[in-house]
Amino acid sequence: xxxxxxxxxxxxxxxxxxxxxxxxxxxxxxxxxxxxxxxxxxxxxxxxxxxxxxxxxxxxxxxxxxxxxxxxxxxxxxxxxxxxxxxxxxxxxxxxxxxxxxxxxxxxxxxxxxxxxxxxxxxxxxxxxxxxxxxxxxxxxxxxxxxxxxxxxxxxxxxxxxxxxxxxxxxxxxxxxxxxxxxxxxxxxxxxxxxxxxxxxxxxxxxxxxxxxxxxxxxxxxxxxxxxxxxxxxxxxxxxxxxxxxxxxxxxxxxxxxxxxxxxxxxxxxxxxxxxxxxxxxxxxxxxxxxxxxxxxxxxxxxxxxxxxxxxxxxxxxxxxxxxxxxxxxxxxxxxxxxxxxxxxxxxxxxxxxxxxxxxxxxxxxxxxxxxxxxxxxxxxxxxxxxxxxxxxxxxxxxxxxxxxxxxxxxxxxxxxxxxxxxxxxxxxxxxxxxxxxxxxxxxxxxxxxxxxxxxxxxxxxxxxxxxxxxxxxxxxxxxxxxxxxxxxxxxxxxxxxxxxxxxxxxxxxxxxxxxxxxxxxxxxxxxxxxxxxxxxxxxxxxxxxxxxxxxxxxxxxxxxxxxxxxxxxxxx
Length: 573
Ligand code: ADP
Ligand code: MG
Known about the structure:
Number of helices: 22
Bound molecules: adenosine-5'-diphosphate, magnesium ion
Structural class: alpha/beta
Helix content: 25-40%
Distance between the termini: 107 Å
């Protein structure tokens, strides 16, 4: 009798293994997501590959985490969601990332596209590919496992190249479940070459910019979050310090150069808009946040604009000297072109800005100490306590959202290191706090403080539990003034319901922290806040501080109330 030969089965893999390997080979270290059909198994396999899978309670927050990782690291953050609603929840963050030029990749499980196309009413049926398309830089659909490695590599390249942004991959159930011989799957992988390929601006544009800058009498540099993102900190420092050019940062560019440095014109924004003759925009857009470059701006202003996106030039006002290309290469060329040239700047320009800074800062610090012992606290009192502690711990990343909480925190806390401030950015959205906090902590390993309005916190509060499950060094500070803008809105006479802006001045957000095992504090006085905040950040553990503010602290829409349509009774004809 002869023993039958052992049949030879080739080693097999599924689309899920291929996805995990594709992410690993692209150097992805973290995936943020929320599992369910059809991606649960894929998430386990991804985790098994040594990629950190950070599971959230809401896809939008997982997406905000991925976007924040993208912004802080210049590599795409990855979001994974289920189909239909999970996809849509995540897409809000991916769209927001695209608007803000943060590189990220959203991978969502999707129904069989042949069934979606025939509208048969399959499980979680939605044409996700076409839904995502107008909101992101690029879309891919993997209908077969063979498509996955190339989709992931191309999505990576699309996310980081040119103007960074969000990319969507429709990861269909048939592709995830497809079985292949491992040896065939091996052949699908390739090492993409030159994934981020910076393009230099042309020489003529560079010399135009150089001439414009050196001939300026009252020059200034405006730094945007594109400049922070680009990680060209030394070049920015060189052009500013070598040529003595005053600068002012947009909110997320704070810290690229120190807010309190001798050339900082942070408090002279309106003066610069009105009186400068040349402003060099580095990675900032003349959008609503900068009054579109007109109105309050000197009408004869010459703008130099460094931007990777040619469609950004002349958007609202003609740009005298556009420099289109990678801004690191642009600054190299501009610095080379300026070699041996001297600035024509009027020395009194810088002196007057420095004098204005001094006066304004003195006034501002009065405001921060004025109410030092007032209870209940207002935003300024609380920030007067937090400011010195944050400033003496400059390496803590600050996440910030709200209305008054955003404006007042941005205005009062000086930053001295680049990429240490993440906020609601271009769309001025609410609901990025916990996601960005977790993303910042996971991506950098640093301590993170999130200063949140009570309304803002409500959008993402449940994902504080994510920071707790992962034991991240995050402190959340909730400024509770009992409402959207404030807690003193009066309901209309015909209702017993709360006013549309009213939340709960007595809400004990600290109990939410306790529910998830965090160290939680309820503070009512500046002294209690100081003690709690100091202890919380020192602990390096998840902490939540509920700061009781007065219900009348804060005004409608913070600094941007003018964007509200005026009610009829205020319109005079
Ligand atoms: P802010 O809100 O701070 O003004 P924006 O997001 O409006 O900043 O502007 C950032 C700009 O930076 C975008 O127009 C984007 O195209 C540009 N940008 C991002 N990365 C680069 C880069 N590496 N080189 C050149 N421009 C870049
Ligand atoms: Mg509030």
